[in-house]
Automatic annotation (TrEMBL):
UniProt-recorded name of the protein: NlpC/P60 domain-containing protein
Record has Phosphoprotein as a keyword: no
PROSITE patterns: NLPC_P60
Species lineage: Eukaryota, Fungi, Fungi incertae sedis, Mucoromycota, Mortierellomycotina
Pfam families: NLPC_P60
Keyword Lipid metabolism: no
Family of this protein: Belongs to the peptidase C40 family.
GO terms of molecular function: cysteine-type peptidase activity
Stretches assigned to the NlpC/P60 domain: 2-132
Keyword annotations from UniProtKB, A to Z: Hydrolase, Protease, Thiol protease
Record InterPro entries: NLP_P60_dom, Papain-like_cys_pep_sf, PG_Endopeptidase_C40
Amino acid sequence: MSYNSDKAIAAAKSQFGVKYVWGGGHGPRPRKTSGGYDCSGLVRFAIWKGSDGAVDLGHGGNTDSQYRDGHSRKIGAGERQPGDLVFYGRLSDVHHVALYIGNNRMIEAQQIGVPVKESALRTKQARYVRIV
């Protein structure tokens, strides 16, 4: 399996402006569903595109299943690179994920009412993961 972070970032950027929809992106294949994405649906789509369809991160599950997926490994904050994932929450309650794009920026489907966008990296309770 080869993962191309540039492809993943381009895929996520192609969704700028798409609305946030709880459960969006969790159909049988990674793609926009119900007219939008939730955070894990957007990341699932980006990783699918970045791996040319080889990785279905979390197999359509939630953020917690993505954090524990076997196609990734945990890394330290100082190791993060564009294309890595940023998860938020305690280990027992991972509740949000975004795609790191470098320069302390990320792409996310943040919440209802906020479309897919680029945001400043938030570091409180952040955990970093690299696709392998």
